[in-house]
Structure of Molybdopterin-dependent oxidoreductase:
Amino acid sequence: MSEWKKTSCVLCAQNCGLEALVENNQIVKVKPDKDNPRSQGYACRKGLNIAYYQHHSDRLTHPLKKVGKDFVPISWEQALTEIAEKLRTIVDEHGPRSLAFMGLGGLGGHSEAVFGLRLLRSLGSKYYYNALAGELTGLYWGYGRTIGRQYNFTIFDHDQTDLLLAIGWNGWMSHQMPQARRYLDKISKDPGKMLVVIDPRRSETAKKADIHLALRPGTDALLTRALIAIILQEGWQNQPYIDLHVSQFEQIDPWFKNFDAREACRVCELNYDQVKEVARLFATRKSSLHADLGVLMGRHSSVTTYLEIILLAICGRLFVPGGNVVPGYLMTMGPHTDDRNPKHWKTMSTGFPTILGMHPPNAMPEEIDNNHPERLRAVLISSSNPVRSFADTTAYEQAFSKLDLLVTIDIAMTETAKMSDYVLPDRSLYERWDTTYFQLNYPEIYCQMRQPIVKPEEELLEGSEIFTRLADKLGFIPAIPESLYSAAKKSRIEYGQALYAYMKSEPKAAAIMPFVVAKTLGQEMGSVNLAWMWALLQTVPQSYKENAVRAGFKLGLTMGDDIFQAILDHPEGLWIGKVDPDNNFANLKTEDNRINLYIPEVEEWVTGITPEYEEEQLQSEGKYPFVLLAGRHMDENANTLIRNPEWNRGRRACTVAMNPEDAEGLGLNDQQIVKVTTEAGSVNIELETTTDTRLGMVIIPHGFGLEFNGEIYGVGVNRLTKNTNRDRIAGTPLHRYVRCQVEAVIDS
């Protein structure tokens, strides 16, 4: 028997709506879901290949324990008992700073993060490492300092903008917005709108642009400073907006007043008149800005983001229609953790702050591999493969071998799982109820509670259930009154009343409420994640309730339950809220209710980014004459989530791209196997020559180097990246500027 079922893609953060044909518990065909209100029948090649994520020979089916060099199957009872005992021993002997969590949620399921972090806090630790902290924390830090909350970062108002400045963003391949290709195609053809792309490479998005500034790799900060300087020197800034909404402008104005923008453009290898025209257009039109990994993983990463915020502010493009706006949320991506507040932990060895509740993955190898008495000794990993996904594979392998305890919770026997002491099988994102919380839309707020479309193996558990059982083993869940269990069997409304009464009588139970809900309503619903969605909707703040009213829901005691029922009734997804488009300034949370432009800690850094300094720093090194962009978005990569390479059969999925002139100068040819070397290591890889790649630059995609059925396919680009090549504030890797050498492979 076959059946079409509503679901969504889990291979990127856009989670486009899909319909899957399921036969005999197998996904056999996939098509875009035209009923999905967010993606409206849009999906890329990755989404249409979710069957390769779900069905493959590396799937885990039962708990495993490493004995010697081999893994042996064990029961859940044994696995959780032993892990709990080891965790308790390590924390008791070495303190809570000896424990860290990594991952939690992935791109398609965020429910388990709530449970994993509650378990972490219950054990006394605050060390949480996440992929977002490998990309976006410099952005969060900049917005936290300037508008008051790290979670209130902005996106561009794509419906109303008439000029989009895309910086280091190849949206045609990386998406980063709903229906990216439809949108980019539309804006490029609209005579009333403009697309301006800043990217060293002639990317698929750059080919659509009205103006493409093919800047020299590594000069994003210098160019952004030049754009600001041109605007201020020409008097194009929006002074009324500055007077009304900005503070500390007079403290940053001197940074740009006498800045030599013409000389900066020369160093960036750009035409000054063209840059000046881009500055004029951005300052005088209904403009917006979207920067991606080209900036977030580039030189001067955090400061470049800060300069972009200054650019938006002086042009009056923050919190306004068509500009950069703060989207709405059901749940924010994390808490505001100001690095100036000592209650928020810094990493012990490397000293990186907590940003949005997270620590940078780049720092973890050093936090393990040191002699400090409170070094990391135990790491719990869920839905993450750091041995392939994060910078410096070699450093991770060395560090993980020195841990007292490494536990991996995942659906597949990943490279990280193979290094673990225990491997626990998670249900896949198509075998469990789950959702994602950072669907970045404006002004609507979107939700899709993805339902199970295939049945799991009997021994598989939701990650949230695994964390709940571990919390129980560790003694963190008190005795739960029978009244809660019985209420859960009657109705959600009666359960809500019983839960409220219990929390009121036991105030300390609020800290472990997710576990209480899991053991009561979760047991009754057959899904911890589903039960938690219901509970979350009962505890939303007043601001969200106002957003829900704008989406058509009625205010009242049953609003949370009404929204929950609507989510169940709409497996294709629905709008569950709408922010007030006329009051985006409400997201400004600084003390003076203005955009605070001056960040004193980085003044010397910003003013040091001069044409003279950058020219000196960017000189080609004899040993490493090329700049590697480590991480290329393509139709053929899906991070490390699709392990079976069959989905790319017949495609050139993993090559090093180089300009033909550079290849000719080295005596190299297209399809030749070459050796790429950096300070971190070397890999042998097929050469692809293309004029889309800038002279002096090479590009290797991410998401390869995975072992499947005893063979390794492609190369893991993180063999070439050093974990110490990172942003000085956020610790994010500088993957878009890695010095390298390329040479022919000499046959031995």
Remarks:
- The first strand starts at residue 2 and ends at 8.
- The two ends are 56 Å apart (CA to CA).
